[in-house]
Amino acid sequence: MLEKFFNPDSVAIIGASRKEGKVGRVVLDNIREGFKGNIYPVNPGADEIDGVKCYPAITDTPPVDLAIIVVPARAVPSILDECGAKGVRNVVVISAGFKESGASELERECIEITKRHGIRMLGPNCLGFINTYSDLNASFSGSMAIKGNIGLASQSGALCTAILDWANIRGIGFSTFISLGNKADISENDIITVLSEDEKTKVILLYLEGIKNGREFMDIASVHKKPIVVVKAGRTRSGAKAVSSHTGTLAGSDAAYTSAFNQSGVIRAASLEEMFDYGLAFSCQEIPSDNGIAIVTNAGGAGVLAADACESLGIKIASFESKTIEILRSSLPDAASIYNPVDVLGDAHPDRYRSAINAVINDSNVNGIIVLASPQAMTDMKGIAEILVEADRASSKPILASLMGGEQTVEGEKILSMNHVPNYPFPERAARAMHAMIAYANITARVYTSPPDFDADRRSVEDILNRSRREGSRRFGVECLPILEKYGIPIADSMVVSTRDQAVKVADSIGYPVVIKVISSEISHKTDVGGVRTGIKDAQELRVVYEDMIQRIHRYMPGARIKGILIQKMLENGREVILGMNRDPQFGPMLMFGLGGISVEVLKDVTFRIAPITEKDAEDMIKEIRAYPMLLGIRGERPSDIGAVKETLLRFSKLCMDFPEITEIDVNPMLVFEHGCVAVDMRLTLEE
Amino acid sequence: MLEKFFNPDSVAIIGASRKEGKVGRVVLDNIREGFKGNIYPVNPGADEIDGVKCYPAITDTPPVDLAIIVVPARAVPSILDECGAKGVRNVVVISAGFKESGASELERECIEITKRHGIRMLGPNCLGFINTYSDLNASFSGSMAIKGNIGLASQSGALCTAILDWANIRGIGFSTFISLGNKADISENDIITVLSEDEKTKVILLYLEGIKNGREFMDIASVHKKPIVVVKAGRTRSGAKAVSSHTGTLAGSDAAYTSAFNQSGVIRAASLEEMFDYGLAFSCQEIPSDNGIAIVTNAGGAGVLAADACESLGIKIASFESKTIEILRSSLPDAASIYNPVDVLGDAHPDRYRSAINAVINDSNVNGIIVLASPQAMTDMKGIAEILVEADRASSKPILASLMGGEQTVEGEKILSMNHVPNYPFPERAARAMHAMIAYANITARVYTSPPDFDADRRSVEDILNRSRREGSRRFGVECLPILEKYGIPIADSMVVSTRDQAVKVADSIGYPVVIKVISSEISHKTDVGGVRTGIKDAQELRVVYEDMIQRIHRYMPGARIKGILIQKMLENGREVILGMNRDPQFGPMLMFGLGGISVEVLKDVTFRIAPITEKDAEDMIKEIRAYPMLLGIRGERPSDIGAVKETLLRFSKLCMDFPEITEIDVNPMLVFEHGCVAVDMRLTLEE
Known about the structure:
Two copies of one chain form a homodimer. By secondary structure, chain A is an alpha/beta fold. Chain A is 39% helix and 21% strand. In chain A, the strands form six sheets. In chain A, strands 9-8-11-10-12-13-14 form a seven-stranded mixed β-sheet, with helices on both faces. In chain A, helix 14 (381-394) links the parallel strand 17 (369-373) and strand 18 (399-403). In chain A, helix 3 runs parallel beside helix 4. The longest helix of chain A is centred in the middle third of the chain and has 19 residues, at 427-445. The mean pLDDT of chain A is 92.
């Protein structure tokens, strides 16, 4: 739908200017520089600009596919209205002075007008965009991008200019280069959609400070067909503060971003440099079919650094097949290392590199190659580069190079760059790029399944929540356990009573030992005020303990209204786990799982997923916590029922999806046994 | 002592060659290129080389300070002998064909000869060295280094050439540039010593694959007066394997290296690029006096990236004093962000940068500044660079820059480089370099204290060990607890018995409940064979359990010789911790500390130090484990006696230092109470 937006046949520049250096002139000049379509400057005060016929208003031009607006902010709404009347469906608002400087109202007005007319809008407060394949520089950037197959969108215009300048000097090319500005309408979600369909684009790079619609982002990114690499700024407290003072974007929780990126197969880069290191690899090399790589080097030390980097990232240093080792043994000098990393030695001529590369590239355990070269006395860097190009052409396995040096590598680097073999100045960066490619291979191998569905008594949960709400409180405790039960999650046998005699009656029927817990909206940490008593062995003890609890609470929390006392079967020897949900502003319900006790409280050994989760997600959550071996059973202990935990997670996910009015749930503890698991206590918060 | 080595007045080249391109000729040409001292080529087959008088043997030349040897490996020993006879005290052996290719014997022979004559030797199998301040290129490197204040030594010659080529193109200068080769004599320890005294050197960079004498390295590095930045290759299993196939260096444990670097104040870089990023900062900026930095940017996004990088590294984004905020408010436009990061906006001219930098540099919460600039329409990169140089001259606080871009930053980069303001292409790299500087500030602030001494009954421990050794075994168990007691570490009340009646007698006197444990060299996991029984309440139970244990062991481990049964007071309610020691081949006794149970077994939540440790080390060990809050007491639990744990660690350290014949000890568990701690079980291994 946005194809014409980034591939227009005709462009109007509203606010085109005669005055050199003014944005309205720079944009016009940039467009005229290469664009072959029709160009219509609009300026009521000029008949022509630099020989191009000028129109007094957008209503006066022939029909246009795209309008670039560079008028002062306050004039933008009326211009948008004119565009709408004229039938212009695509606009770029370069003008600043909107939400980013406090004028949110003005921005909202623009959004309404574009909605009304069915206009798609890039910006406001953006640099514009570049489409190298239609030679269109629809931006006020000083320089045009080089043609290439990287599609890039950035939420920061200033970073756009820096990136473009940086990329040009390195010969890094783009298909489309987009400044997102305030994302009042067009956002990363539209960009991913349009670039996924764009045949000139092989990889999508995004610099984002926030995500406009997290849920939609995940849906769109999940079905993508190309690698998406994101730098998400504002991942720390300081960074998030800087983001919000910068663009007013609400950052949301970084754990939620991390989960969302993982779940939807988006690769996160830790820095701009890393984003380009990855982008370069994706833009010109095939995706490896699996983990397992070979390293070929003429410098032992460089091979060690690469091997270190690979292993610490989880890249397998392939074990060669015996035929490979034989070929290497017969074709390399005795002193060479014929195992992985292959050291062809400091005096290696290009043909020795060729023998080594040919041998390892045909090894079925090798799915990618990192080739290193240090400029030594006999080293012919140009020749080595040519060998790499030759090998790259002959094989579909990815080849990444690290020609290390300066003056002496320049020629080789040029050959690699012209022939689309990525080169990195240091071996560790080549290893990281290879790691991103292997990560993407795993992503493409994923089978996306739908979250499973379960029978659930939704209606009863609604009733419970409505009843609770009517009581005028937002926070509830253990008395909400039946909500879980309605979704098929086993809960401890329990009942709420309001007298001592009822308590004894209930306990007699459940069977001793029992636990009793106070229910009160005013008491959020029951244990601290003696509101939980465990291991009650018989009716006699129960009477004493019940009375004592009521008195203590009256004494220490005189303001607390006791809604009742919960009598619960006491369960022993289960392993404690915790399930939680927190609603993230960007992505919705974020589920948490971890072992209870010290693992959660002290070690924060927990894992997150955005709901709804699939069976695979649930399995992964359980396996991801560091304390997972505890669930498997260590030191001869019996294993916990992981299947039951998995099913509980899936049912919990469904519950959280079904009731958006629940903003927080903690099931803590849930006890897991050798067979089955049981929720024992919980807290729940409803939205205000 | 090595000053003359790297600063000779006269140099002989033994093996100088007439033939262009041969190493013996390249070295001669390189030395002649700039060196002003006397040069004596030695070659029995030539009268002169390229107009320089040639000598038939080193014995024929005038006295020389340094001899460079480039003859075939097998001829090296006799040449070294001649050098010794001649009185040459410094030699560089460039020749390869020694330990690295299996000829360890030949290398040992060379070492003996140099020892005998008091010769210091660099290499063999090295590139040589460069001293830029005496214009001496005593290497066969194709290019000379630029003058600067970085001292570098590399264990890989191939990386030397790559680094030099890389550095030259970037204008990065060196005082001394040393290829270490096989380190048969001169090692990193000598280099640190000599470069620490060298007034031309401000920072020492090391690429190492192993360390020759770990203990000495720590001693030397600890008293250094300059930042030392190390890339230690071979930190992973694959890397270590590659190291050993590369240079035959035994890698040792990476945890030991990490501890050794930390304890001796050496900064470890994760990659060569990082080493240079750090080196650049140290080479031309002052060390910040404390944590806390300011970020100044003309691009909000870049500021966010820098803030993210800083916070995730633990760099404080300083809160400005109110006077600073006032100055910023009055001197910057309304839309600017006057909090940290300071955003001077995209249209900022250099003078706006000046106002911002001047304001924040005078803030007492600011100890360093990172300045970012993106090339936007109005940006004068050159002007901004000049402002940075001006600010750098006026202040002793470190300033790191990140001019982001390509073409448009070239001029600015040049100005910064010429004026010694470090520039990084991306903000994250500037942040990492700042982090290294702050880490070094903390290192210099450390007060190095000696490990405390304690009274200890060393003689008794010797007796126990000798007795144990006489029994012909290397592995011992709980019966060794008295060893700890002799070093003042409290142990559980216990005694070894060999009959049931003795057992009852002992238990009666210790007091019930008791624990009994079998003692047998053949049984290393007592619990698995029923060799530990706890909670024995009285004599009657003890008789039954004792008999049962003996029978079980006879049945399940018929080959196990029972040396006795240990009767121990049963202690309850203590928190389990574990103390361990393993002897690292490079660094000696490496101590381990952690909480017992799941923390050690599953979560590997342990911390290491090389012994001997100081009081500060012991405190840090306890605080470093993630489960530390457990010792402080969570959820209203009573705190554990951390002082007692600390003293135990220090006494344990002394024990490990005093008895090098002990290769391994595990004290597991030690129980910590609110007051005091007690060792309950242990294992000990003696060297073979």
